[in-house]
Amino acid sequence: MRRILTGSGIAVMCVCVVVPASAEPPPGRLPDPDCAVVVPASPADVPTPDDVPESLAVAHRFATGAGVRVAVIDTGITPHPRLPPVIPGGDLVVVGERRPEDPQLPEGAVDDCDAHGTIVAGILAARPSPGDGFVGVAPGVELISIRQTSNRRAAESVGAGGNLASLTDAVNLALDRGARVINISLVSCLPPGDADRVDARGLDAALDRAEENGTVIVAAAGNVDERCPVDSTVLPAHRPTVVAVSALEDAHTLAGYSVPGPGPLLSAPGRVPLALSPDGTGFAVGLAESSGPRAFEGTSFSAPVVSGTAALLMELHPTATAAGIRARLAGAVDPATGAVDPVDAVTHLPADYRGTPHPVTVTAPVAASSGVRARTGVTVTILLCVIGTMLTVRYTRLFRLRRTGGNPGQ
């Protein structure tokens, strides 16, 4: 089929939804007035050390993602004391710094002006602290940041990123830097009828390369809005080798804004009550916007839960293929909602599991001693003799009664 649309012209956007935040906007200042302003957390918003989610506390007894490289393709990640050291993987937003062969790693990858990539990274990889109960799904991973899009950077950078061509470059950059898991909390929504007209061959080739490399790609399923109708084709989420993640409204309900996908249903919470602040210190509970505070919510924030879980599985099964990790994820979900629980994933045995047989020695019960057997035999013999004597006496009396006509005196 003739393809008349090029991938470079298809926009890629972050996937958040607008919901009220619970705190007032901050009166403070930001170093860069062009960047998003976050609502700082109050002490009451921060969980205590006793409030670490049980699922994560138990899962981390098995794995933390240690040694697994995870790339976050997003708006950049601001370094934070609670994150692993952020490896700058490339900046595809600033003009002139887009080419993968550029030996210089641009600083933009470690700058999150949009307050999005840092939120994603915290969900995925925040390290624990003895002072609170906040922790990411895989705090032991190595974290790579690739800035692929931004809505807030300089006007001259518009068009340099945030499309299928730059997304393709970002995936290849992540693979070049050794990523075994790639989180993409970005979507490109194609209306019905346009999907077959878009030239996505470059992206598909990058996804194929990831599959051959054993790298798992996890992407947000997308949020339904005027730019992304419910029947849209969502890239990269709707590609067969990509794990598409929907959002949960609560433990038992899928969020109504999640775009349905063609593959297996996997989901995770979409609402983020507490996040690492993109200012580089402390926590945030939402964005401060002119219309009022907005909480962090959307399939963008569901995807890193699954990416972190994939990293835990990668640590436990370092030789597993990408398809094998996807199968383990899908095999451990809640059958009704597709919810991914890290502890269920790391402790789940696949249906084709065949354990290694181990010999078991069974000790026979100790036989009774000969003295015990002898005493038991004597007791039984005496008992039988007594019973026999009683029966003999009884039948003898009956016989005599019959001979005398029932008169015992004769």
Number of structural domains: 2
Helix fraction?
Answer: 25-40%
Return the CATH topology of the largest domain.
Rossmann fold
CATH superfamily of the largest domain: Peptidase S8/S53 domain
Largest sheet: 8 strands, mixed
Stretches where pLDDT is under 50 for at least 5 consecutive residues are 1-6, 18-30, 155-159
Shape, per Cα inertia axes: elongated
pLDDT averaged over residues:
84
Range of strand content: 15-25%
Straight-line N-to-C gap: 125 Å
CATH architecture of the largest domain: 3-Layer(aba) Sandwich
Strand pairing plus helix content: what structural class?
alpha/beta
Instruction: Give the number of helices.
Output: 8
Global Rg: 34 Å
Question: Would you report the number of β strands?
Answer: 18
Assign the CATH class of the largest domain.
Answer: Alpha Beta
Please sum up the structure shown:
The protein is α/β, with parallel strands linked by helices and 410 residues long. Helices cover 26% and strands 19% of the residues. The protein contains 8 helices and 18 strands.
Q: Which SSEs are present, and which pair or pack?
A:
Elements: E1 5-6, E2 13-14, E3 38-40, H1 54-59, E4 69-74, E5 86-91, H2 117-125, E6 142-147, H3 164-176, E7 181-184, E8 186-190, E9 198-199, H4 201-213, E10 216-220, E11 233-235, E12 242-250, E13 253-254, E14 266-269, E15 271-272, E16 275-276, E17 283-289, E18 292-297, H5 303-316, H6 322-331, H7 342-347, H8 370-403
Parallel strand pairs: 1-9, 4-6, 4-7, 5-6, 7-10, 10-12, 12-14
Antiparallel strand pairs: 2-8, 3-17, 8-11, 12-13, 15-18, 16-17, 17-18
